[in-house]
Design the sequence.
């Protein structure tokens, strides 16, 4: 199931026939509740951590739409929220499309996380006032995109190196010291949870190799942490660039787990085969491996009785 899901999501187009083929496959599985719960957890993890192609979010939503009756008949409000509780982008879709209704418990959960409050402001106001609160189109568009809304960040994401250089010069930005400002519209966990993100790390996250190379050529230090951001880009060329320039991560084990968490399995196998001999069940990183919910790496020798 995971293999077919990733093939479907990683295709660059958004054809109706591909969707039909995948949903037909799901229908043939005749999901029981526990397997459906596993699949929704898988879907949540993939949608949060995998590299997002052009139609990535639409495909996730199409899958949820297809499963809506099964989901609503098997999960109550709270249990469904618990599955997607860290997934801002999918939670927005579930609330808007009446999979989840905001009640007192969910309202308290949403308001307990700072960057959730602004992101879900219209829904929280509606709950408070019991009157429909409609966000303006610009705000809605930024929420749907789920990325930092700063223009400078957009230039980096698009790897627009010429415009990037012009912007840096016009605004006197110190490229070796500047950091990316946080945004409540951001929905990528690594970006949300990082206290300080350099321009190089942000560029690496989106595979913007021309900007990374420009920064490196202009004596900007590429720190070991850039490996984790590069893994999120699923850009093998960028990984080889780091290797060629002797940029070494703090831990190849953490990089391996990061690749598993992102479902960038080719990169995970590459790191394992080139830099790690084994990962065994007694390893301190084992729980992180299981928590990644990536079934490709659940071999028999990684199963513990407890």
Sequence:
């Amino acid at each position: 199931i995971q293999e077919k899901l990733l093939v479907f999501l990683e295709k660059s187009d958004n054809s109706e026939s591909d969707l039909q083929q995948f949903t037909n496959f799901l229908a043939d599985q005749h999901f029981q509740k526990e397997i459906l719960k596993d699949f929704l957890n898988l879907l949540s993890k993939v949608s949060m951590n995998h590299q997002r192609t052009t139609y990535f979010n639409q495909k996730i939503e199409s899958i949820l739409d297809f499963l809506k009756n099964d989901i609503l008949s098997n999960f109550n409000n709270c249990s469904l929220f618990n599955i997607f509780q860290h997934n801002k982008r999918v939670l927005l879709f579930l609330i808007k499309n009446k999979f989840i209704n905001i009640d007192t418990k969910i309202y308290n959960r949403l308001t307990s996380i700072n960057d959730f409050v602004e992101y879900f402001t219209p829904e929280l106001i509606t709950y408070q006032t019991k009157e429909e609160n409609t966000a303006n189109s610009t705000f809605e568009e930024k929420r749907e995109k789920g990325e930092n809304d700063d223009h400078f960040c957009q230039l980096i994401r698009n790897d627009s190196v010429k415009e990037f250089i012009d912007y840096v010069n016009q605004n006197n930005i110190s490229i070796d010291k500047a950091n990316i400002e946080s945004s409540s519209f951001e929905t990528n966990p690594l970006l949300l949870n990082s206290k300080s993100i350099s321009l190089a790390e942000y560029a690496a996250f989106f595979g913007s190799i021309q900007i990374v190379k420009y920064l490196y050529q202009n004596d900007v230090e590429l720190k070991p942490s850039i490996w984790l951001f590069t893994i999120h880009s699923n850009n093998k060329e960028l990984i080889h660039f780091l290797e060629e320039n002797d940029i070494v991560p703090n831990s190849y084990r953490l990089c391996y787990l990061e690749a598993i968490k992102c479902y960038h399995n080719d990169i995970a196998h590459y790191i394992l085969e080139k830099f790690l001999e084994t990962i065994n069940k007694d390893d301190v990183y084992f729980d992180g491996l299981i928590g990644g919910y990536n079934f490709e790496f659940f071999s028999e020798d990684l199963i513990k009785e407890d």
